Amino acid sequence: MRGIRKTTFREIKSSFGRFLAIFGIVALGVGFFAGLKVTTEAMVATVTEYLDVHRFYDLRLVSTLGFDQENVDSFAAAADVEAAEGSVSFDVLYELGEDRQGVIKTYSMPRELNTLKLISGRMPETGAECVLDSGSFGKSVIGSTLRLSDDNAEEDLEHFSQKEYTIVGLVQSSLYIQFERGNTILESGRLDGFAYLGPEGFGVDYFTEVYVSFRQDYGLYSQEYDAFIDGKEPVWEQIVEIQARARYERIFSEGNEKLADARTQLDENRTEGEKELADAAEALEEAKKQLEDGEKALEEAREELSEGEETIRQKRKELEDAKATIARKEAELSEGEAMIAPKEAELAEARTAIDANEVELRRGERELSDGKAQLRSGEAAVSVTRRVIDESRRQLEAQLEELRQSGEEISASLVARLEEALARLDAAEEELRVQEQELEAARARIEESERQLDSGWIAMSAARTRLEDGERALADAKLEIQSGRQQLEDARQTVEEGEEALISAGEELEEGRKTLAEKEEELAGAKQKYADGEKEYQDAKREFDEK
Fold first, then answer.
1. How deeply is 485 buried, as exposed, middle or buried, from its count of CB atoms within 10 A (0-12, 13-18, 19+)?
2. 519: domain range?
3. Of 169, 267, 337, 456, which residue has the fewest beta carbons closer than 10 angstroms?
4. Domain-ending residue, one of 53, 70, 85
5. Strand partners, 172
């Protein structure tokens, strides 16, 4: 032992400088360690005070679809929640002046949580203003313009309402309590800093994340706080999943409504255009037929004049005109009769559709009644469960209080079991709250179904009224056609009488020649009008096909 000490002292003497250096290093390390041990509580207290002042969040909620204000309100109404606030954030390439560019993370201005500390300048007041990270930018940038780079993807620029933002101040954010500003998938992979945009600075109508703060007094970095957050995470995973699904259903429903409106508009435009083209084609066909009839009448008149049978030819011309009128009326009556059958079929189809719709509405009423019954059953079950939980809690707390007031020594295991039972009751009550939220959502869906059924009954009533009007109009049309048939028969009788008078029509030959010339001129004009109409129809049809 004595030899070891001598050897040790000899080694120290021979390398006394190295010994002093090692001794100094060890002393310095011990000093740093002792200092950290002493200042840890002070550092934690300082950070806690800073985060409490700026209301730092407890949970950050994200979803691939984002969130809307309805989601945020639901989160704020959850158990133990002190505040819930939606936020918008995007990474973007920026340019500042002519020589500085990079990637910056942008945020919407906070209202309650994760508030800012103003270092220089002022806060944004419009959507075209912003404040920057005081740790990454100097006071000289105040008054400058932060410009979104043209190198950004178009879909990234669509997130913002402006292309340029005026810098009005520098701030510190409770989201950044260290020097590192984080990573990004853009460009170099590292963020240069952060920016907060003024009101309406973003061009999106949703939140990219939601921050939640709970009512709790646990110390920062304490085991109690970690246990509290660990207990909240599985519950909030379910809450976020429910709200994300609800937002998806709202977006899907809105999209379907817009798509249905667009399809309806397309069908209406197509039907209207096709009807106009069909009417135009029908008018052209009628004009063509009239031209053919006119040419035939003129040819007959020429033959009569060339034969020299003055009176007979003139009368025959008049009779042919009468026959043409009868033929036209016959065609009109036939056309009217032809339209009756499709209209009857259309009305029958409408009545079938209305009856089917009534069956669907009545089935919807039955399903709604079943849904209401299920909702009442669920509400009754929840009410019974809550009474059981409240009664169990009261009994357990009474037992625990009775043991404490008895003065007897209380078994630690018994107290633990009682506290564990109370914890299970807390969990059951949390689950019961989730069930109550689900019942509330079911109640909202039932109310919406009731509104839709009411609208359906109103629409069906209006459709039945239109159907009855159509049936009355069809009956009137049938009566009108019958009257036209009688008038046509009278006209035919008149033609027969006219043919008997052909013998005395000789002196009207000269008038017939004049009439023939006039009719030839009218026919030429009608041909030109027909050619113009056909060209207009072809142009309209080509335009319709293009549209």
1. middle
2. 256-546
3. 267
4. 53
5. 117
Q: Model's pTM, two decimal places?
A: 0.47
Q: HSE (CB half, 13 Å, CA atoms) of 410?
A: 15
CATH of the domain at 312: 1.10.287
Total of domains in the chain:
2
What is the pLDDT tens value at each position of the chain, 547 positions in all? 556 666 666 666 666 667 667 767 776 776 666 666 556 666 777 777 777 788 899 899 998 888 999 999 999 999 989 999 999 999 999 999 888 899 999 999 999 999 999 999 999 999 999 999 998 999 999 999 999 999 999 999 999 999 999 999 999 998 998 888 889 998 888 999 999 998 899 999 999 999 999 998 887 778 888 899 898 899 999 999 998 898 888 888 887 888 777 677 766 666 666 676 666 667 767 766 776 776 777 677 666 666 656 666 666 777 777 777 777 777 776 776 677 677 767 767 767 877 777 777 678 777 777 777 777 777 777 777 778 777 777 877 777 777 777 656 667 776 677 778 778 877 877 887 887 787 788 778 777 877 877 777 787 777 778 767 777 776 777 777 777 777 767 777 776 776 666 656 656 666 666 776 776 677 677 667 767 766 776 776 677 666 5
59: left (phi over 0), alpha (psi -120 to 50) or beta: beta
In a domain, 350, yes or no: yes
In a domain? residue 206: no
